[in-house]
Known about the structure:
The complex is a heterodimer. The model of chain A has no long low-confidence stretch (mean pLDDT 92). The longest helix of chain A has 35 residues, at 12-46. Chain A is mainly α. Chain A is flat and about 75 Å long. Chain A has nine helices and no strands. By secondary structure, chain B is an all-alpha fold. Chain B is 81% helix and 0% strand. Chain B is elongated and about 75 Å long. The mean pLDDT of chain B is 92. Chain A binds chain B through residues 1, 60-61, 63-70, 72-73, 76-77, 80-81, 155, 158-163, 165-166, 173, 176-177, 180, 186-187, 190-191, 193-194, 197-198, 201-202, 205, and chain B through 1, 60-61, 63-69, 72-73, 76-77, 80-81, 155, 159-163, 165-166, 173, 177, 180, 186-187, 190-191, 193-194, 197-198, 200-202, 204-206.
Amino acid sequence: MDVDFSPIIENWRFFAGGLGVTVLLSVVSAVTSILSGLVIALLRLYGPRWLSRVLVFYVDTMRAIPILVVLVWIYFAFPLLAGVTFPPFWAALVGLTLHIAAYAAEVIRAGIESIRPGQTRAALALGMSRTQLLRKVLLPQATIRMLPAFGSILTIAIKDTAIATVIAVPELMHRAETVAGQSYRPVEVFTAVMVAYFAILFPVTRGIDRLYHRVAHLGRS
Amino acid sequence: MTFDWSVIWTHRQALLEGAALTVGLTVLTMLLAVPGGIALALMRLSPNRLLQSASLGFVEFFRNLPLILVIYWAFYVMPMAFDVQFSPITTALVALVLNIAAYNAETFRAGINSIRKGQMEAALAMGMSRRQAMFKVVIPQAARRILPVIASTWISLFKDTSLVSVIAVGELAYTSMQIRAQTFRVLEMLTAMAAIYWLMGYPQAKLVDWIHRKYGVKE
């Protein structure tokens, strides 16, 4: 078997651009997912009963449906229903956020609930308002406890952006398919891309671990 | 725009077969990935340095790659690199097992480590061999703690089987998208696909919650 990595070297700008799209899409969707997850978690914990039921249904639905199905539905089916089309990047951002936010909401809810109820009572007894309680007591401690989970949300986002290839988002995975098809060198292309993904994901998982060990003591109560 | 929902009923046979393959792939992958995960976890916990790093390397590698890339890689690279020819279904199974076994290995390792060291020492002091202590004392207790995590992995796996549609394995996602391409009933077929996944996945998600409530470790 002959090995020829020249298609990768010749197209390095194309791959670098794809890598940029992957990083941009995953960072943005991780941030939007965590922010929407925070809103969902707070509404679930402190909102009205009916809203909390709706949100539980939404979260469990997203746990039941694959991200591939969500992406394909938003990109191909939703425009037929609503009469508007999204460019692939935006469809992917919406789909990824819908899917990952459900997971983030569960993580954040568990983080807030992990703070002992005595602290809530103490804060209320001191005359703090609900907002103050959240901002000054619960969230600062919960955030530190949730850091490893936020890290895994980022890695999930990076891995899930690769699935956005099915709706032709020009990220790394999609560009790999393009070059593999044109050059008839799938072995070299997919191996190189595998190394690239590992090179991004491994430092992220390791970095989050390190960071957590450094700040874990701040989250103890 | 008019919609024609009868297309779903017309193709019910194909959709059912797709759904059956989705379930079959999930079950088969888990059946192979549980022993695989146990083997990797035991390698990691063994005193042999070589086995330890082999297991660590495998787990870290597959946990840090998008599954869809592993599927493509298994489809294009594996046949050329190892000179074997697999059907798409076998290829899909290999990719899924590699991925899930790596996750299971971490689950088993954490579960075994969560059993206090004193139990292992007590078993050894009573004259049990390491093997006996592991299989009669540590693993039965760890299993209870591991079950909820495996249940969560099960749900992810059930959803991840949809990714093997990219190498033309005729499970639910691939079948629905094929019918969509043949009939041009895009909205109907994609909605049906989502609905069937929901019908199968939602009860599983609820079951997993129940397992977590029943067996989850509370501190």
